[in-house]
Amino acid sequence: MSTQRETADIRNDNICRSNIFGAAEGAYGPSYREHFFLQYKLFVESVNYTSDLKLKLNSFFLTVNTALITAIGLGFSSGRIVDSSVWHLLLPLAGVFISIIWWGVTYSYKQRNIIKLRIIHCLEEQLPLALYTTEWHLMEENHGSSLKKFLFSIDLFMPFVFLGCYFLFALFG
Q: Fewer CB atoms inside 10 Å of the end CB: C or N, the chain?
């Protein structure tokens, strides 16, 4: 399995290197290094923006799921407010869909950041320091065990916790 991953990493690095440099330094002109560094800084900021947006979306989905669980709990405690089929089937079904969407959004943003970091690694080959590349290698080294990999991906696991709750509500409600 690790050789498949290594092969995919090499293929991704080759794609990155063959596509990332639009013009050679000599053909671009005297502003090449200055513009290179400015583009690098903007791209690093886009990684931070994507991470911030992912955190905001996770907070949003956590809030929606918490409100939905609360509504389901209120429905169980006082079934006279609305027809019980709404509380026992439709709200958990809505929660299932929300959880699936949450997982998809989280996965998408996680993959987007991984790709952005790989591009930064390619750019850092042309810079004096490779800070993000070093951080990436240290993270891989420190998250080598299965438990550490699980904790590194906990944000992908959280929607499934809510998904399980909604299934339990639907089955035993």
A: N
pLDDT digits (tens, 9 = 90+) for 27-72: 888 888 899 899 999 999 999 999 899 999 999 999 999 999 988 8
Residue 25 and residue 144: Cα distance in Å, rounded?
A: 39
Contact 98, 67 (CB under 8 A): no
Q: Is the dihedral of CA 72, 75, 81, 83 positive or negative?
A: positive
Q: What is the DSSP letter of 69?
A: H
Summarised one tens digit per residue, pLDDT across range 108-117 is: 998 998 888 8
Q: How far apart are CA 49 and CA 59, in angstroms?
A: 15
Cβ-defined contacts of 47-55 (< 8 Å, 24+): 47/113, 47/116, 47/117, 47/120, 50/109, 50/112, 50/113, 50/116, 51/109, 51/113, 53/109, 54/105, 54/106, 54/109, 54/110, 54/113, 54/155
Asked if residues 43 and 120 have their Cβ atoms less than 8 Å apart, the reply is yes
- pTM (global) more than 0.85: no
